[in-house]
Amino acid sequence: MSKVRTRFAPSPTGFLHVGGIRTALFAYLIAKQTDGDFVLRLEDTDKSREVAGSREHLIASLKALHLDYDEGPDKEGDYGPYVQSERLDIYKTYAHKLIEKGLAYADPYTSEEIQAYRDAATASKRAYRYRDNRPENPPVWDGTKPLRFKSSPKSYTYTDEVMGEITTSPEVIDDIILIKSDGYPTYNFAHIVDDAEMKITHVIRGQEFISSMPNFLALYEALEIDRPVFAHLPHIMNEQGNKKLGKRDGAKDVLDYIRDGYLPETLDSFIATLGWNDGTEQEVFTMDELIEKFSLSRVQRSGARFDEKRLLWMNGHFIRELPVDELYKRVEFFWPESAKKQPEAYKMQVLSLAQDRLKTLKDLPALTSYFFEEPRIDISLIDENKQLKKLSDEQRADLLSSAKSKLSLLNGWSADAIQKALNELLEETGEKPGTLFSLIRIATTWAKFSPQLNDTLELIGKERTLARIDAAATAESSR
Hints:
- By secondary structure, the protein is mainly alpha-helical.
- Among the domains are: 87-233, HUPs (Rossmann fold, 3-Layer(aba) Sandwich), CATH 3.40.50; 324-373; 375-477, Arc Repressor Mutant, subunit A.
- Helix content is 43%, strand content 8%.
- It has 19 helices and eleven strands.
- The protein has helices at residues 18-32, 54-64, 88-100, 111-123, 187-197, 213-223, 254-259, 264-272, 287-293, 308-321, 324-330, 344-354, 364-368, 380-383, 393-408, 415-429, 433-445, 453-460, 462-477, and strands at residues 5-8, 37-40, 104-106, 147-149, 157-160, 164-167, 177-179, 202-206, 229-233, 236-237, 304-305.
- The chain has a three-stranded antiparallel beta sheet with strand order 3-4-7. A two-stranded parallel ribbon has the order 1-2. The chain has a two-stranded antiparallel ribbon with strand order 5-6.
- Strand 5 and strand 6 form a beta hairpin.
- Helix 15 (393-408) packs antiparallel against helix 19, helix 16 crosses helix 18 and helix 17 crosses helix 19 (462-477).
- The longest helix has 16 residues, at 393-408.
- The chain is elongated.
- It starts with a strand and ends with a helix.
- 34% of the residues are buried.
């Protein structure tokens, strides 16, 4: 068996979202599990749709998710160039092979004439096919007119690694354009030539290409090119599962997820499990596990639902799994401004406490800023707490004063000593932990969430803890 070579071949027409990344990821996994090659090729033959900066963005997205390709525009191999606009002579060579075999011809019609044929087909209530109006004596192709394939419609049968065995209908085969009048090839022609030239063994792409397969198969036959392995992936659906995922549903830029504090490991695992599982109950996979366990045969044929809550849960899981020193490297750009000049050892302590609570790296400021700066008193956090709002202002002020008195008596300021004092305070006040501890937590952090109370107070320090409790008691008393 020849060496496995897969490719990801996006068009530089915008950002890369989860659908595109899933295609790239699956192609990467198939290559890596057999020590094969993963190739990046940019299909930029439709210049009208190209977006400035897309090439760089596509490359940055793959690298951000650790989908390292073996060959590509910035990593030359034996089959370059890896940008289609730099391969025009190759397409012309293949085009002339078809012309010489009588299987391609110049399209002499104007756009107005073609539209007239379309209108006539519509009026006759039949499907429009260019081949029904194929010119009898087309001119010699000189590159100024489109070059079309001269089709011989018939049925084809092929095996799709995801969709199973598929038989196509001859009616849908037509004289498709191979090379446009601007000299650039169409996708239909170029990708087949490129895959053959680059010795691609597996073609993995979205299910929207299934409808074009009859024409593709006709071209493989006409060019006498062996078919690769085909795998067409079902759509990624919105959270309701009733339509293809769009920008409004969360199909956002992959790099935006990175900027929002999602880990590459999370995105790889989450995207891999959109429509695939290994047959077990396992939900989270490392890249090594994905390479070992992935198979196209276990990709489902129906659409996969995009679940934002599951993505967030999975990100929290991967954050908790990281060694704290590795997590420290990842959060470099997420610290609150007030932490920038703080000692690394102190920030490492803060991060150790906050790690279990982080769902995204972007949560870091909200969970840690009160360790580095004096928080703004926000009484609404107390008023909106379902336990604390049952108490009067005077009761809350009294509890805070009792807490300050109890904690001020501590000689050693450690998490254990603080917890012992808090437990004694529970007995003395007769309050429930959910009430007393919530009040002290809010008064010392003024945050919606924080790590375990005794650990938090230890790191804040005795002096700052007592001062904040005192300020909160004063605020309650003065209402």
